[in-house]
Amino acid sequence: MAHAQTEAKPIVDREQALDWLRQMLVIRRFEERSAMLYQRQKIGGFCHLYSGQEACAVGSIGVLREDDYVITAYRDHGHALARGMEPRAGMAEMLGKASGCSKGKGGSMHFFQANRNFMGGHAIVGSHIPLAAGMAFASKYRGDDRVTICFFGDGAMDQGALHEAFNMAGLWKLPVIYVVENNLMSMGTHLHRHSAVLDLTQRGGPPYGFSASVAVDANDIEAMAETTLEAANRARAGEGPTFIEAKTYRYRGHSMSDPMKYRTAEELEKARERDPIALYEVVLRERGWVDDEGLELMQAEVKELIDEAIAHAEEAPEPGLDEIYTDITVSPHIPQE
Ligand SMILES: Cc1ncc(C[n+]2csc(CCOP(=O)(O)OP(=O)(O)O)c2C)c(N)n1
Question: Considering its fold, how many domains does the chain have in total?
């Protein structure tokens, strides 16, 4: 049983809190079922699970506006679902079906939903970090007050693209929030083996003149929400970017093919004692906002939602051959007969 460690005063009302708990449960179940489908070879390509990190996506995206931009790396299911993607569009994408969010052509690493300003999962480590600066630049150029939030892993801290983009974001005071989800691992390489400085808030914000650089316990969903809200307020007020080191942990291997030999069962067990979903359930019980019956009902609803998404995905058609060149490149480069 997890113990509540959050002291944060509620920044949300009951309805919002229950919605966040539900979203975390949806992400967890979506991925557990995806893992099963992967093992049954229903899902092709790479598949990176987010289990253990749910509070990071739900808490941060949950305080943003619908017109703000969200962009992430390849561990993207959690961010997409937190942004409101329908599980059936996500699951169909996992199975490579035409009704998937990227028409079945992107797969697990390339969820995308422009009408929710979810600007995608990106497979090349660090590649989307300059894109986030570009989106934030566009907001500033247009004179609107939209914010861009960009998620990446601790491994991306070493990419040159990150440092080039951070320099421009700081220089031009762009309205962007950069969130490193520090789950301690870059594939099987521990942070202390790829970074001389372990306090990422020192590497992320200060060298580039960001308005703030803060570390947060990202298993505490409300702490994550509060930190993000403050960052968004600063960005909208023209104060420029914030760097957030979201301290978290992933339960699964890097991808489905990772046997996790770099980690002990004890380490995993210890991490699970601070499971973000269990922690939040305890908090909400203590506030009297949920009880056994409410939780059971919520779990049953989430199960049904994911069951339905899988049934839809299994039955949906594959993309037709005529889709082979669509959405791949701009029209002049499509081969002509
Ligand atoms: C430029 C580039 N180099 C290497 C890879 C192979 N690769 C895929 S994921 C990964 C590790 C990244 O770890 P991290 O950024 O910490 O993210 P996490 O998987 O923990 O979410 C690597 C090296 C890649 N996709 N792109």
Answer: 1
